[in-house]
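One such given next:

>
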Amino acid sequence: MEQQSPDLDGVGVRHRATIAEIARAADVSRQTVSNVLNAPHRVREETRRRVEQVIADTGYRPLKSAQSLRTRRSNLLAVGFQSPGAEPSPVLDVFLHALSTSAQTLGYQILLLTAGSDGAEIQAYTEAVVDYAVDGIVLTGTHTHDERIDWLRRQRLPFVTFGRPWGALGGHSWVDVDGAAGTRAATEHLARAGHTRIAFLGWPAGSGSGDDRLQGWKQACGRAGLPTRGLLRRSANTIEDGRKTCAAVLDQPRPPTAIVCVSDALAVGAWLEMRDRGLVPGRDVALIGFDDSTTASVIGLSSVAQPLPAVADACLDALRGQLGSEGPSSGRWRQVLLQPELVLRESG
């Protein structure tokens, strides 16, 4: 229910106050009210304060449609993501929530676009630009040979990616989390605790973020003089695959005393496999995941946390740096690499 506006014409009214009514109540012209809203530096301080007081008293809010016509902006941002597989994506859920919250405080709304492939996502972007005149695009889940990035660059659309380009040609704005730093910190922690055989459960080769996290494990093992041969297992990102790959490394003649995982999904599978074998994660075999999901905190799984609210804010900053121009250019590219945090719990 709308609040009743103050009596602007001598009679209480139940409708949205207009600029004309604000002007009449403040004894100024409609142009002056418009200037107070859009260019307050043009208005004398005494007049500005009087108009602002009337605006506050009436609860006036400018019509978005009128603003869009004036600024040629829809204040709408499209966020594209491809539907996850069998396991939910806690990272995507938290990121989208943070992005929506921050965007709203800046006056933007989010249009979510789901697709099953790069081609389908490109088609969704095309429709969003034509049908909704979106101001910018946030792309998630970057990968090698990413057709979406190349298409967006050719269209000269303002966009930013959550994820590095992983070999895509040319430059653009991106925000990412240093996955190698996260797994390196996890592996170094385990090495300091005395573990000399640390396994890594990763994703199939060719995954940009997966390969990045793998490098962190390799670097830490190399610096500590620890072996890696026979201690790497790759699989899809499901809990069941985590069980299988964990079983494979534990069944070796010389099993590891610690395991670092590329994701919490694999780590939860490893945790379940250990419990089925009568092993206690953290006491018998140390275990560290990646993403710091809600499940990790519930079961006591150590994990690497991504600063997702900071990622969302950096994505919005990168987009706002492009808006107002005729398109992206190298002078406005923002490339931000944020640091994750190792969260230690009972398992590691």
Notes: DSSP finds 13 helices and twelve strands in the chain.
